[in-house]
Amino acid sequence: MTAELGPLPVVCWSIAAVRASGLFDEIVVVVAPARLEATKAVIGARYPGVRVVPGGAERTASSWAALDATKAPVLVIHDAARPFAPPALFERCVRAAAESGTGVAGIPLADTVRRADEAGRSLEELEREGLWQIQTPQAFRRELLEQARAAAGERSFTDDAAAVVACGERVRMVHGDRRNLKITTFEDLAYARELVDKGLAAVAATTASVSDGRRSG
């Protein structure tokens, strides 16, 4: 995500938040091979210590590329398309992973949820109790991701938590942040820019260096 968002490209907002958390030994950005050189140029000009590596054709393959790119015992995987994740959210996910093996950001559903057919006709109302809207970051002990990878084979998943669940493990939900929106359309980007212009979102202040020798983001 090299589109400009206020003072930085979108991807750099997440890097700033990760650095500001003070938790990570290294940061690895996984990007589509076609955008590799452009992304390296954008990130290298601002964060020369951040590695940029090629990903796969689908999300899950890119997660496995991240797993190969680091030996860290705890990995935190975050969508660069979510630029407003605060440093404290990374901390909560890492803490949960340290305690239970996983920490997945999400928001408990507050709205009524209904299932509809392809024509938009309502079929049923779903019980929302216990339902969460999943976000990133998602933190995992390395051995769980390796186990999920071995069990996945050629399958692809919507997120890394789904891959871990598919291999028979449970994930621990962590309260996310409603500001942690995902930019997937031009309308989303325009809304994110409006939040920045109005002073409702700001880049996290980063530390000069971050190293505890244990975690990769």
Overview of this protein structure:
It contains seven helices and eleven strands. The chain is of the alpha/beta class and 217 residues long. It has one domain (4-216): Spore Coat Polysaccharide Biosynthesis Protein SpsA, Chain A (Alpha-Beta Complex). Strands 10-6-9-5-11 form a five-stranded mixed β-sheet. Strands 1-2 form a two-stranded antiparallel ribbon. It is globular, with a radius of gyration of 18 Å. The model is unreliable at 207-214 (pLDDT under 50).
What's the total number of strands?
11
* Name of the CATH homologous superfamily: Spore Coat Polysaccharide Biosynthesis Protein SpsA, Chain A
Kindly report the CATH topology.
Answer: Spore Coat Polysaccharide Biosynthesis Protein SpsA, Chain A
The order of strands across the largest sheet is 10-6-9-5-11
Number of domains: 1
Query: Which CATH first-tier class would you pick?
Result: Alpha Beta
Q: How large a portion of the residues is in β-strands, by DSSP E?
A: 15-25%
Please give the share of residues in helix.
Answer: 25-40%
Largest sheet: 5 strands, mixed
What does the radius of gyration come to?
18 Å
Number of helices: 7
What would the average pLDDT be, to the nearest integer? 92
The termini sit apart by 17 Å
SSE run: EEHEHEHEHEEEEHHEHE
Categorize the overall geometry: globular
The low-confidence parts are 207-214
What CATH architecture do you see?
Alpha-Beta Complex
Structural class, from secondary structure content? alpha/beta
